[in-house]
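Field notebook, page 1006. I keep forgetting to write these up properly, so this time I am using the form the group agreed on. The chain and the ligand, flavin-adenine dinucleotide, are recorded exactly as supplied. Prediction of the bound pose follows.
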Amino acid sequence: MSSLQVQIEARGERIFDLVDRHPESIFSKAGFYQRMMALSMRDEHFKVQMFRFVDVLASLRRSGDIVQHLEEYFADMRDGFAPVIHTGVRLARIVPWLSSMVLRRNVSGMARQFIAGKNPDDVMKTLRKRRQQNIGFTVDLLGEAVVSETEADAYAARCLELLEHLARETRGWRNPLGINSELFPVVNLSVKISALYSQMNPADPADALAHLAPKLRPILRRARELSAFINFDMESYAHKNTTLDLFKTLCTEAEFNDWPHAGIVIQAYLRDAEADLRDLIEWGRARGTRFTVRLVKGAYWDYEKIKSRQNGWDCPVYLQKPESDVNFEALARVLLENESIVTAAFGSHNVRSIAHAQALAEELGIDRSRFEFQFLYGMAGPIKRALVEMGYRVREYCPVGELLPGMSYLVRRLLENTSNEGFLRAKFSEHVSAAQLLRDPSELVTCDGDKPAGIKNRHQRNGASRAAPPGDIFEDSPLVNFVYKESQEKMQAALRDVRSRFGRKFPLVINGEKIWTNKLTPSVNPSAPNEIVGYAAEAGIPEAERAVKAARAAFGKWSRTSFEERAQLLERAAAILDRRRYELSALEVFEVGKPWAEADGDIREAIDFCHFYAHQMRLISRPRLTQQVPGEESYQHYWPRGVALVIAPWNFPMAILCGMASAALVTGNTAIMKPSEQSLNIGAMLMEIFEEAGVPPGVLNFLNGRGSVIGAHLVDHKDVDLIAFTGSREVGLGIWESAGKTREGQRELKHVICEMGGKNAMIVDSDADLDEAIVDSIYSAFGYQGQKCSALSRLIVLEENYDRVMERLLNAAASLRVGNPEAPGIMVGPVIDEAAYRRILEYIDIGKSEATLAYQAKDLPPQGYFIPPTIFTGVKPDMRIAREEIFGPVLSVLKVRDLDEAIEVANGTDYALTGGFFSRSPANIERVKAQLEAGNVYINRSCTGAIVGRHPFGGFKMSGGGTKAGGADYLLQFLLPRVVTENIMRHGFAPEETPQYRDEFLWPSR
Ligand SMILES: Cc1cc2nc3c(=O)[nH]c(=O)nc-3n(C[C@H](O)[C@H](O)[C@H](O)COP(=O)(O)OP(=O)(O)OC[C@H]3O[C@@H](n4cnc5c(N)ncnc54)[C@H](O)[C@@H]3O)c2cc1C
């Protein structure tokens, strides 16, 4: 055993000895909190319900509501394991006011375990007590989720007030250890960076710095005057780089360069942590002034894991708990070895991690007065006391604030205390032995547990057996993560590159030939309409005729090409899309005014469509036995319909065009692809991509031209068998009607796949989590300027909540970043063209005459088709702005009495595309799931951003024909079912069993 390990064990055992003299009360058996924790540790379902209930409780005002929620969360609990709850629910039905009072008191009591005071005065009581125990403090203001600059400014002001208050109230206090006190000011404030700026966007660290620095400078300045210390807390990974940059930038400014009382947090659960720490140390040495690093494992582990899985990103955190422990120890070594420039603060409740830091410091000859241990208020009390007794410096992290803003903090602490892998639970609840708890964590890391989080070998498993449905594994491709500097730089380079090629001209592509006509259609940059992004040759009727002929001629061979070959074409196209991803995103920024992440999302969706439809084709294309019956086999399979006309809109210029075209191709149809006139460059790119991928001549044809000319002509054409359309209701209904007529010489009944608009509603329940509801409503309404067919245009708010919602909503809208989306981090760019610009302004005028203009943005770029984000209140369901699709950044707010009325209003339109609901009432959520008329219903999240395969997308009523792009049934729209039955009995003899699948019926090659 190494001597360090011997020392760690000795120190650890000493700490445990001292701890066992004062057992931890929060893990004892008595009291409401203790019982809740014990139940939570026993049953995962209870734990989820319990934490959700705690989360909603603070926002409930009436006793009846509390009792109702109690029932909804716990009524289905099985007997036996939660009698406390059963009794509670029964009692609550009889005397609601009493039960809700008791509950509130108990949950407040629970919160008080972790929240050191309601306000600055209140917290002083705690701090004084701790002073008696020789424990220092850092105070943190609760209230992390800021949705507007008003809220961010209020947070900054409260920080300053708190600082003054603490300095005043602690005058004369001395540092408990007496020596090296200059390193550890008494007053210590921990600041949450994200609470100081509501528009932080990982893609745009420069903007965050520009907004955060002016808010932080006065705080740092005042802290310096008051001889106080400021710590930059670390939050989610998305904000990590910005927080580090901000810290270094501010502390290098002349005013703070020689100020040693600033600190920052390093999270050992991050794989990047060591690189970040070394970079900080190098920076610190160049600066030449001490600073502090609080080393922690990290508080957002579950969140980071979920977020990265959802987006297909490499997971930034370690996946095995001992890996975080090992890294904590490695980083402790880096810190202590650089003690000459950095002061270490170890933020851990884990006795092994603590004992390791102590032993290592001793080994390196660092006096115990030169670093400190930090603990959270309300946790690990006996360990704090033990360390004080051992002569170490101890500081407690004391959150201050009301219960409501404190809920997310409380839930994080509850999770931590009940975590299966947590030290506190192991020691104080499960009584794991000291020897176990002090083991070297590197011995506990297993090598197979932590696979690299990026999913390797996607789309590789094509093997099919005759027993199982064939197909490969479909996974959505990852979004670009703009947290990384490298991604930001690639996007900037792509923007420069695409700009340098403005004015390119693209031909039509018919039968594999490049065709130029005597007319070119320009496509302009809506942010700067004097800039022409590119041109495409414009097709007239003769070219349309040629395209139909080419597609018809190519159909024979393509329809008989094996599905596997067709699927592979899509996969090659996906790979090219992926390779050219930044370039294509940059083109979207210029051609259709998409903000960076929206543009990337569109390219990602196109890639996903290719993979998904290839995958689906493999699943459905092998003839499948209809029934197992002796003596006869019947196989159902599909034939393509013929020539498909694909007419796509500009708002998802790559994804929708690619989705419809790739579905047509993979199913064996040939296609004529007509992009929107506003996004013809992107359409031309898709053609280029399919050509590079090897699409045979005539199978896919690119026809740019006017919808009213070639679009109408092709819809009516006798040789067009299928029309896949996404666009406006007016055009969609025209196509539907026209396709219903049978023309002379027509072979097939035309089939129309029609996706149209929406007038989408979201309902905000009286118990909704407003932090989420506001952010998601704002994003749904104003993301991509409200030009998504899924965008929110009617926000329906229950009157009980109305004032609170509106105050935060209007402030949040006022904080939005509107501008040219070439700049990263812009949320609202220009609308697509002048016609849209005029139409939306007309609707705003209509809104002004019908309802009340509650908010309209003011500072807009001087050129470009920028419409100010606009919110109307006092909107009634029969008003035009509540009924007609506006397709711009205009939101109508409707106030309703209750959920009955909310659902009636939400359903009271011609459309049924997307809809949403924010609520924390399980019963209300169930009801909305059942009753909301929308093709895509979203609960407690934004109503835009459907992901292929995960959220098959499309609506009904006047929103569409009920088809679901990116869903399992979609390809069937492009196919004709066929059944082949054979009598396989010969003279009374037949095989016992017929295979479930057979090879496709292929034409003999000649
Ligand atoms: C004073 C103080 C201030 C803090 N400030 C911050 C801050 O600014 N930002 C921040 O993010 N955190 C902060 N924390 C850390 C955080 O809130 C937790 O308290 C801390 O991570 C718990 O670690 P532990 O060493 O006490 O317990 P342990 O039980 O030893 O470790 C638990 C931790 O291990 C990690 N973990 C759990 N499961 C896994 C797994 N499967 N794979 C890998 N890792 C896993 C998680 O980080 C988890 O919190 C602070 C902690 C303290 C004490």
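OBSERVATIONS:
- The first strand starts at residue 136 and ends at 141.
- Residues 233-234, 265, 267, 269, 294, 296-301, 317-321, 323-324, 347-350, 353, 374-376, 397, 416, 421-423 surround flavin-adenine dinucleotide (CB under 6 Å).
FOLLOW-UP: compare against the apo run.
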